[in-house]
Specification:
By secondary structure, the chain is of the alpha+beta class. It has six helices and 28 strands. The chain has a seven-stranded antiparallel beta sheet, sandwiched between helices. A six-stranded antiparallel barrel has the order 11-12-13-16-15-14. It has a six-stranded antiparallel barrel with strand order 5-6-7-10-9-8.
Length: 479
């Protein structure tokens, strides 16, 4: 079963149907996400149209209501009330090319202070952070008033940013935050606001379903619909208080969306209150935050012992259930005479780094058993499978080509042929993508191929994870 991907809600002017991330950020320049072919994406919401959403006049709300047994009229009145409470606090965030003054991407945001501080997603504002010489940002209110924004602070790990509206003479209307000590109840009705697909501001009703299991950073499971362009918009409770920030949706499901808990937005707002505007490319600050992320990632994986998964006599390491989801498949009918089993595991640890994602951890295995092939034929097939593994063979503007080292190791009961490859980030010094390939060499007609991929890892931590991984392989002979 393939991995479902979550995409951030993002709307790009160049293509509405092939969206990667929730808000409309990083439109034309964003490449497709790097993930295994069998892995669906988790990113800001995809490009499906919003049910029941229309371009609203200034006095009306576009309301998307999920199926429910409650009185639809009551739900509609609640949503309209929330919309009227919030409408003057909502803004659309647009990124424009400085030279051409054309729109590059869009998302949503909301005022959180009278002096014009605005909360949105980092992936909405990342071009302002990383290429300020090429892009500028503006905010647009529901009434069509437009003004310049400046970036004050961002949180890469949580996908948050704080902007300031420049040149405002009047106090901005403010959305308040729900107090942290007022815990949300499972099934509590909440409302997400934003500008989906650039067709008008809308409110979507849904439910609070707790925190997402296995999410590396806390995320709220929102049982409602988010769409590109809503990234960075607020999710509020029945009293109109912010409890989360729109960030992503699952592309393989319905009404499975995600919010960043408000506590992280509030912390960033407090940090940004006295910050100076970011006017130069902020790769250094992004690198610092990504270094923190990879350290937390490394510590969690080293502290949590691998679980053993059995494939015949082979024992391979898979992450603890709290760290990653794993999927498996049995015998593949496309390979007669060969018993081939596959396993794939992925940690929900990706973070947005501008035009690409990093921070992911993936493990995969292929277990071979072909007693009827003979040793020579099996060796050719097994070697070809090892050689077919895809690596970063060429550099690009983000990364160098992979440099690889190969050796034979024997961590215990199972001798292995191992290849370790590292590809450096050009603008994120000290961070690498690492791939570890391991192939067993102990049986004439049986074999195990293992692969570990870690993105955005420091070299020393990469070596620690590689050693932790390889030392967990075992061969258990039949009694």
């Amino acid at each position: 079963m393939p991995f479902p991907l979550i995409r951030p809600l993002r709307l790009a002017t160049s293509s509405i149907l092939l969206l990667l991330l929730c808000a409309l950020a990083h439109a034309q320049n964003a490449p497709p996400p790097t993930s295994a072919a069998s892995t669906p994406a988790v990113r800001p919401a995809g490009g499906e149209p919003v049910d029941g959403t229309a371009q609203p006049p200034a006095s009306a709300a576009a309301v998307a209501t999920p199926a429910t047994s409650a009185d639809p009229a009551l739900l509609s009145r609640d949503a309209r009330r929330i919309y009227e409470l919030s409408r003057d606090k909502l803004v659309q965030i647009r990124t424009l090319l400085r030279n051409a003054n054309t729109q590059a991407s869009i998302g949503s945001g909301f005022f959180v202070s009278a002096d014009g501080l605005i909360v949105t997603n980092f992936h909405v504002a990342s071009q302002l952070a990383l290429e300020p010489e090429r892009y500028r940002g503006v905010y647009v209110t529901m009434e069509g008033q437009e003004g310049e924004v400046e970036l004050l602070a961002f949180d890469v790990q949580r996908d948050l940013a704080v902007l300031r509206a420049k040149g405002r003479t009047a106090a901005a209307p403010v959305l308040g935050f729900r107090p942290a000590d007022e815990a949300l109840a499972q099934g509590e009705r909440i409302y997400s606001l934003g500008n989906p697909l650039d067709i008008g501001f809308a409110v979507t009703e849904g439910t609070y379903n707790g925190l997402v299991k296995r999410s590396f950073y806390p995320r709220i499971f929102f049982g409602g619909t988010l769409n590109p362009g809503m990234s960075g918009g607020p999710a509020v409770d029945d009293a109109g208080r912010v409890l989360g920030v729109n960030v992503a949706k699952r592309l393989d499901g319905e009404q499975v969306s995600f919010l960043i808990p408000a506590e992280f937005a509030l912390a960033l707002v407090q940090r940004a209150a006295n910050a100076q505007p970011i006017t130069q490319a902020a790769h250094g600050e992004m690198t610092r935050q990504l270094v923190e992320h990879q350290q937390v990632l490394t510590d969690r994986f080293l502290k949590a012992p691998f679980r053993e998964q059995r494939h015949g006599n082979y024992r391979v390491p898979v992450p603890d259930d709290a760290l990653a989801r794993c999927w498996g498949s049995g015998r593949d009918p496309a390979f007669p005479g060969l018993n081939l089993e596959r396993t794939q595991c992925r940690a929900d640890s990706d973070v947005v780094a501008g035009e690409f994602n990093t921070g992911a951890v993936r493990l995969s295995y292929e277990a071979y058993n072909a007693p009827t092939l003979g040793a020579a034929r099996f060796a050719r097939m097994f070697s070809q499978s090892f050689a077919n593994e895809q690596l970063q063979r060429r550099g690009n503007r983000h990364q160098t080509a992979a440099e690889c080292s190969e050796r034979f190791v024997d961590p215990g009961s199972l001798p292995l042929r191992v290849v370790v490859c590292m590809s450096a980030y050009r603008k994120l010094p000290g961070l690498y993508n690492m791939t570890v390939l391991a192939a067993s060499i102990n049986q004439p007609t049986q074999g195990m191929l293992g692969r570990l991929d870690v993105q955005g890892i420091a070299f020393d931590n990469g070596m620690k994870l590689a050693s932790h991984y390889l030392n967990a392989f075992r061969w258990e002979a039949a009694p």
